[in-house]
Amino acid sequence: MTTAFGVDLDQLRAERTYRDLVPADDDFHDEEMTDRWWETETCWFSWNVPERSLGGWAYCQARPNANICNGGAWVWTDHAAYPWELAYRAEYSGLQLPPRAERDMRDFEWPNGVSVRVIEPLTTYAVRYTDPGALEVDLVFEGIMEPNPHPNGVVPFLKGAHFDQAGHVTGTMILRGEEIPIDCYSIRDRSWGPRPLGRPRPRHDKPDGRSSEQDPGQSRSGIGSFGGVGYSFCVAGPGEAWLTYAIPGPEVEPIACGFLLRGGEYGRILAGERRVTFDRHTGWPLSIQLQAVDEFDRRLSVRGDAVSRHWRGHGGDSLVHWRWGDTVEGWGEDQSYFSRDQWEANRRR
């Protein structure tokens, strides 16, 4: 029996299952959706310019049963006086989604202005966004590893499908008339399945002390069930990358899953712990330390310091400079989102 971080690693190796990804997963998954209102499909690409403390996103979200599309593009730096003042932000909601017969995510211009075209299935993508005079993005994402599927039935994505992939991002970004070359390493992700919004119906205790199940139509399949998520990653180069999912808590946050790419060898992270230092005035993460172990018993121990950030509700995204081992360092992000109670607890800590 092998134990680490309070869990049985041998048992996790035996129990965890993963979806097999195929080229068709680059397209929409309407045939897998139920008729529930909150069925959701997403795609997300990120990039950075470390010497300018600049981060960027293109994010698209479809809710096919509601016939709507959300998302857009974001760019942030460390120059804003407040974390909600972004260099660029266009975040749309409630846009009309074209009928299934008229959309193919393998070559699709989303209603929010982001276009994605598959160059090589599950590997290489052209990503564009155009808002003349404000932001124009023309990028190519090339995966440096196979997509990493989220383990089935494991927090924070208990239902549906989700995967992450590290890659090399190249191209140009024109921000307010200034052309900025992009040549970095970062992450993309995809998901499809139920992702409810709003407040779930309360659970009621039964006489025997057990709790009744929530209405299936209101049950949360994502981060809301656990009061938030800590999504941290770094891609340092062609053969060095890692990504973890942590569940925010009072002090030590358990890591549920992720991946480790070391020396070009890819493995799935099984367990770990994350510790965060917060700004006592704002509750924002300042530094992150995490330790994890993958399926090959390889250990990961890293520290990251946030250099710029943007705010979204009770949390947000930080561009982070990460260091691990004796010589390895790189750039990535920390996306920490908390319940209101946990956010206030962070400030008190």
Any chance you could write out the topology, listing elements then pairs?
Layout: E1 3-4, E2 7-8, H1 9-15, E3 39-49, E4 54-63, E5 68-76, E6 88-96, E7 107-109, E8 114-120, E9 124-131, E10 135-143, E11 148-149, E12 161-175, E13 178-194, E14 228-237, E15 240-246, E16 252-262, E17 265-278, E18 285-294, E19 299-311, E20 315-324, E21 328-338, H2 340-348
Antiparallel strand pairs: 1-2, 3-4, 3-13, 4-5, 5-6, 7-8, 8-9, 9-10, 10-12, 11-12, 12-13, 14-15, 14-21, 15-16, 16-17, 17-18, 18-19, 19-20, 20-21
Characterize this entry briefly:
With 349 residues, this protein is mainly beta. It is built from 2 helices and 21 strands.
Plain-language structure description:
The protein is built from two helices and 21 strands. The protein is mainly beta. A hairpin with a 6-residue loop joins strand 17 (265-278) and strand 18 (285-294). The longest helix is centred in the last third of the chain and has 9 residues, at 340-348. It is globular and about 55 Å long. Mean pLDDT is 88; it is low at 203-225.
Q: Please state the overall shape, judged from the principal axes of the Cα atoms.
A: globular
Helix content: under 10%
Separation of the first and last Cα atoms? 36 Å
Please provide the count of β strands: 21
Radius of gyration: 20 Å
- Mean pLDDT across the residues is 88
